From TrEMBL:
GO terms for biological process: cell wall organization; peptidoglycan biosynthetic process; regulation of cell shape. This is L,D-TPase catalytic domain-containing protein. It comes from Asaia bogorensis NBRC 16594. Keywords: Cell shape, Cell wall biogenesis/degradation, Peptidoglycan synthesis. It comes from the Bacteria. PANTHER family: BLR0621 PROTEIN. One of its GO terms (molecular function) is transferase activity. The active site is at 132 (proton donor/acceptor), 143 (nucleophile). Residues 1-167 form the L,D-TPase catalytic domain. Pathway: Cell wall biogenesis; peptidoglycan biosynthesis. InterPro entries: LD_TPept_cat_dom.
Length: 167
């Protein structure tokens, strides 16, 4: 079984978990079949749940069958399409452009790495597509965001991933 996500309007979407509609946020540019780095769109397709990160200093360890890793201040994710580490977890400091996973906001306090452009990574096709907590801006940069209780339910459900469907 998979979780279904349908784009609603703007950065609003509905995630269907076993038929129950749950409010979600997606990229500010909506969904795209032809995802590219920095386009602010959530990719269309099947996004496998890879593993879970969490901030042990802020939230409880999640209940899930997925591999779980507590984040550390030196965890990052390479989003530089010119670097061999593109779309991979890295240790900071790192010479290439990257995103810090240990953030001041709460977006990555609980975060699922989604399988997008990672087998193998194609430079420029998009990186760091996660299922995480909602940003204060009301839109993601291409990820999918759920309130914490809904995110916990989703990863505890035993589903394999999220099928992002076109508008």
């Amino acid at each position: 079984m998979t979780v279904i996500l349908r784009h609603a309007n703007g950065s609003r979407a509905t995630l269907f978990l076993e038929g129950e509609p749950l409010p979600a946020l997606i990229g500010a540019a909506g969904t795209r079949q032809d995802k590219s780095e920095g386009d602010m769109a959530t990719p269309i397709g099947f996004l496998t749940f890879r593993h879970v990160f969490y901030r042990a200093d802020r939230v409880e360890r999640p209940v899930t069958a997925l591999r779980i890793e507590a984040l550390a201040p030196n965890d990052g994710w390479c989003d530089d399409p010119t670097h061999p580490d593109y779309n991979r977890q890295i240790t900071l400091p790192h010479p290439a452009r990257h995103e810090k996973l240990w953030r001041e906001d709460h977006c990555y306090d609980l975060c699922v790495v989604l399988g997008w452009n990672d087998s193998p990574a194609v430079p420029g096709r998009g990186s760091a597509i996660f299922l995480h907590l909602p940003p204060t801006s009301g839109a993601t940069e291409g990820c999918i965001a759920l309130e914490e209780c809904l995110l916990r339910r989703t990863i505890a459900s035993g589903h394999a991933g999220i099928e992002v469907r076109p508008d």
